[in-house]
Amino acid sequence: MAKPGLPQGTRDFGPEVVRKRQYIFNTIRSVFELYGFQPLETPAMENLDTLMGKYGEEGDKLIFKILNNGLDNADKHEQARADFEKVLEGKNVKGLTERALKYDLTIPFARYVAMNHGQLTFPFKRYQIQPVWRADRPQRGRYREFYQCDADVVGSNSLLNEVELANIYKDVFDQLGLTGFELCINSRKILAALAEYCGGAEKMTDITIAIDKLDKIGLDKVKAELAQRGLNDDQINTIEKYLGISGSNEEKLQRIGVLLGHLETGKKGIEELDFVNRQCAGASGGSLVIDFTLARGLNYYTGIIFEAKAPATVKIGSIGGGGRYDDLTGLFGVPNIPGVGISFGVDRIYDVLEELNLFPEGVYTGTQVLFFNLGAEESKTAFTTMQDLRKQGVRCELYHEPAKMNKQFNYAEKKNIGFAVIIGSQEIQNNSAVVKNLKTGTQETVALADLSNKLFI
RNA sequence: GAGGUUGUAGCUCAGUUGGUUAGAGCGCAAGUUUGUGGCACUUGAGGUCGUGGGUUCGAGACCCAUCAUCCUCCCCA
Predict the structure, then answer these.
(1) Across residues A401-418, what is the average pLDDT?
(2) Does domain A366-454 fall into CATH 3.40.50.800?
(3) Could you tell me how far CA A204 lies from the centroid of its own chain?
(4) How far is the CA of A447 from the C1' of B12 (A)?
(5) I need a surface site. Which of A8, A208, A323, A374 has the fewest CB within 10 A?
(6) Considering the entire predicted model, what is its pTM?
(7) Strand B positions closer than 7 A to protein CB
(8) Which segments of chain A belong to CATH 3.30.930.10?
(9) Could you read off the pLDDT of A134-153 as tens digits, one per residue?
(10) Does the structure show a pLDDT above 50 at A257?
């Protein structure tokens, strides 16, 4: 028999880990609900052509494709072989792969909105917490299956939505105790204006990809990359000026105005940032940072973009991101539905909380009371007593077989159970039970009838 | 897609320039203790050294291949 194993980049989650993950999910979900977002779920798989071409050239390569069933059918052999030849040339063929695992939650959501826009009440605010898959090479903080938690508002152009989303980030990270996170914000319009100003509007993607790496590789390497991507010295000098902008949010806005304020798109972008910055200043404190180097890879963003960064001490980088897309459903034939959304990367948030030791004690609690099993007769009484407690909402279990107390204590210890209820022959005679607090070691004898009045915490 | 790292007990890892019977800690089981745990002590179980070839009198160690893993780049959460 082959050794059991997991597909690369996937993980099992044991009981403790699930509890901790649930803690994160619940925190995020409750904040989403608090802001009036409604839940949505979409299938694990989508039609391949729903996904292809939405994430850029690199993204297409990272989509997990699903091999069609029934290819071994003799009638289809010839067609399958021909199709395979095409795949070897790097093409996608419906005959072989019609479906794919979803790559993110935004495109499936756009597909859903496009299919249901007639029935939806706009603005439609939905949140979605589901796994997504990427055929990436796994490494630190990067998996092939991971969860995203998205919240999007579609059908509204108001920048108030951006403000709300920024505050959701703050609320969630505050509740998780993750002080020191940074919410970086920029506008694609400013990036577009920069490209336009350089005289290379069509080079916007090249420019954004390069400058996004500034904090990672440094100015010199960014300039080298810009040159390699076909920008001339003049253009690079302008970009260097742009990247050199620093100071407080207000100072940055003032300085970018000098550089790009004369351009229509630039002016708009600055107004957007200014509005969000002002609105958040009171509410969300100092966590909002205007960062002109923030670019984000996904092509469909058109306005404000967000990126939540873990505290610098944890070298894990982005723990969430999002932005505005003016015409997402246009890709699916339904134009003029604007939207803005954000995403939390739970797997990375988990790693950050773990590293900073921020999980609260409470997440580890499971069973509250272990009933000892001291024999066939004794365990009958224990069982009925236990069922009474369960009706009161106390989480209980009965040791699965008669055993030495030693063993049963150890079991309780391992499972971090707070109380033992011991019912032996003596207790049965007196209609009582011994309740022992396993943390403190103190114990008392309680009448069976009074047991349900006890608080096992 | 490119580059590198590591694979030895359930887990974390030692294992010298190639040499007889492959070790430790933790965990597990039993006992000291037949109704009171955590500690301590004693004893025990558990390995085809990732897999397949090769070099050698002799390979856990050296060579080749292969699989897996983790990490870096690309890109991303």
Answers:
(1) 88
(2) yes
(3) 28
(4) 48
(5) A8
(6) 0.89
(7) 1-3, 28-31, 33-38, 68-77
(8) 19-355
(9) 999 888 888 999 999 999 99
(10) yes
